Amino acid sequence: MQEEPTIPAGHVILIIVGALLVAVFLNAPGLLDTAERQSGSTRSLAVGVMNPIATISNALFIDAPHQALDRLAHGAPDESVIVADDEVTSTTFPTATTTTTVPTRTITAEDPLRLLVAGDSMVGQFGPVLERTAERSGLVAGDHFFEFSTGLTRPDALDWGVKIEELRSEYGSEVIVLYLGANDAQEILIDGTWRSYDSPDGAWEAEYRSRVAALMSQLDASGAETYWMGLPVTSSDVQNARYEFFNSIYEAEAEAFDSIRFVPVWDWFTGDDGTYSEYLIDDDGSLTDMRLDDGIHYTTAGAQHLANRVFPILAGDYGIETG
Amino acid sequence: MLFPTIQFAVFFVIVLTANWLLMRNRAWWKVAMLTASYVFYAAWDWRFVFLIVLSTIGNQAAATAMSGAVDERTRKRVVTAAVVGNLGVLGWFKYYGFFVSSLVNLFGTVGIDIPLPLLQITLPVGISFFTFQALSYVLDVYWRRQEPSSPIDFAVYLAFFPQLVAGPIVRATEFLPQLQGPRDARRIPAAEAFLLIAGGLFKKVVVATTLGTEIVDPVFAQPEAHSAFEVLVGVYAYAVQIYSDFSGYTDIAIGVALLMGFRFPQNFNRPYSAVSLQDFWRRWHMTLSRWLRDYLYIPLGGSRGSERATYRNLMLTMVLGGLWHGAAWTFVVWGTLHGGWLALERWQQGRRPEGAPAINPWIGRLITFHVVCLGWVFFRADSFETAWAILGQLVDFGPAPLVTPTILLLVAGGIGVQYIPQGTRLWIRAGFGRFGVAAMTAVLAAFLLVLDAFGPEGVAPFIYFQF
């Protein structure tokens, strides 16, 4: 039997460190992008390290193979959607391509209501379930889209203003159920300074509120009707304080638009004592696990519990029988 | 701290360097590795560290008590307490909600309202793995296969970070002897280790993540929206995804341990080339199969009793194996399906006339793969409703836009690699082993470049962490 080739431990460490260092320069664009997506001091440190490396890598064309492979793997980057610029301070809301309001029309099986469920990871379970629930009426055709770890504080990860317009145009959506905010307690770059969510001067709140209002304004102008989902009670008190604060912003801003309806979901996920409960009685009368272990996201049963409450609101507004 | 992250790369370089610098000073080495392992575990949730520390103290106390006991009765009492304690902790964290809600619903169907409290319990990552390792230690001490080790050795064994959160399930008898002396720093099987790590990363980051996001998640989230071909490919894709995800993790774990001078047992051996379900379980999650065989199936009586008792033992082992994977009735069905099919194979084997030819191996492979895939439907589905919907859609023909050439390539490739002979793998390893330091560095850097370019943005946690 052939003897297993071996080398000394020192060589092993040398190989690993060498390969990682070379890979850091080769993958500098991707790593800088990853660094940009961190939050707080991690972000500052990661960007501080990766910025000069990316500059050197680019100047010496070391990143050229990465760019070429990236194009091969993922196609040309869509500059209109991903804005990997450190200096982005707000979302870039485009002018809606359609500005007419949804005409009052007869919804039929042949010409169903076009529903879009969109948002962050909260839509992962909820989107397909609401779509399925709505489609069972025979009068709704649904689509859904979600992108993990996105929201209104980080347009560099995904610019929701641009994305929602893209989706609306692609699917011809008349009704949008939008679920954003779960990841939004992050720093925002305001006047060249990263401001934290709890900045005492209110600068963060003012900026965030303006972003919410701008997106609502864009949605209103597009002619689609929007159901803006509230954030749910969670297992964490810290998270609950944030989510209640965000919900108050969404609810207040939505009041300015006839086409935007805020959907408060908080109480649908509390137990008898009014606090978070992982297990709840579902609509069939069974005690059911509604939330994932993180205490934030929904299980499929939790998503169904939510869809069973959201769809009747939507159906009522459009005169659809929920049977 | 996930393996395919920059954080882990930095952590590992530091720990690997400390590992070899301190190797000859055994006491300091153990303290350093234990600290590193607790830091690794605390990266998920620092509170979990207390749990593993308590498990270490409790199980070591049991092993020491058994060793010092003068009569068998005391030893039996201690081992019973240790087994009940370990399973109790596992049950509390993993199954409390499942059993309480099942009981409430069961009594609810006959109109009885039982007010059992439902608590918010966070499942500590990897609890199933380190609990099984702790059980193997106390049971081996009880059966006198193993002497109690020193407390620090046992603590390092239980917490050793490469296998801590998702296996392989390394037995005390396999690991503790390797702690007895310093590992040989001059002879590291680097080619084997690097190929395991690189292969594991590719399987996880490119194959599993792509299949998961592009076809498996959409199909299982909304079966009714997909045609028969999409659902069929979605199920095959899940078979490849879970293999790539789990074997990828354990390959990385085994490779990481090799670079530190330790050898873990093999955990996967081309499972989708199995000619029967019995053969499949000799190739899939081999360390769990061995554990279930030696600590559950054989103590239950194994195949030593009547035919009926053997079937019962098989079924019990597989049902409990199913429950080990998750607190849901869908996992029970998965275990029952495997137990039932294994019993059927045994029954059929026992009735084959002597000298009669066994089933054609290729037909056996085809049948076995599809039985396994049927099981995966229940394993992956979040409810029976979804599982039945998946199976129902297999006769609903229509267009299949999710089945792209990339998906077909990954699914076919994921199954195809199972048929690459072991000799070819050894030949590749030997060839890579002949590379010098510079060439190995260049190849690994190029691999990381390809991985970053072809891998999706962000990597989902490994599927088996939840178990």
How would you describe this structure to a colleague?
Chain A is 43% helix and 12% strand. By secondary structure, chain A is of the alpha/beta class. In chain A, helix 5 links the parallel strand 1 and strand 2. About 8% of the residues of chain A have low confidence. With 467 residues, chain B is mostly helical. Chain B has two domains: 174 residues, no CATH class; 265 residues, no CATH class. Chain B has 19 helices and no strands. In chain B, helix 13 packs antiparallel against helix 14 and helix 14 packs antiparallel against helix 15. The longest helix of chain B is centred in the first third of the chain and has 38 residues. In chain B, 44% of the residues are buried. The chains are: A alpha/beta (323), B mainly alpha (467). At the A-B interface, helix 1, helix 2, helix 4, helix 5 and strand 9 of A face helix 1, helix 4, helix 9, helix 18 and helix 19 of B.
Number of helices of chain B: 19
Oligomer: heterodimer
- Indicate the CATH class of the largest domain in chain A: Alpha Beta
Strand order of the largest sheet of chain A: 2-1-3-6-7
Average of per-residue pLDDT values of chain B: 89
The SSE string of chain B, one letter per element, is HHHHHHHHHHHHHHHHHHH
Here the CATH topology of the largest domain in chain A equals: Rossmann fold
Range of helix content of chain A = 40-55%
Distance between the termini of chain B: 17 Å
State the main characteristics:
heterodimer, A: 323 residues, alpha/beta, Rossmann fold, 2 domains, 5-stranded parallel sheet, two-stranded antiparallel ribbon, globular, B: 467 residues, mainly alpha
Task: Give a brief outline of the structure.
With 323 residues, chain A is an alpha/beta fold. Chain A is built from nine helices and nine strands. In chain A, a hairpin with a 2-residue loop joins strand 4 (188-190) and strand 5 (193-195).
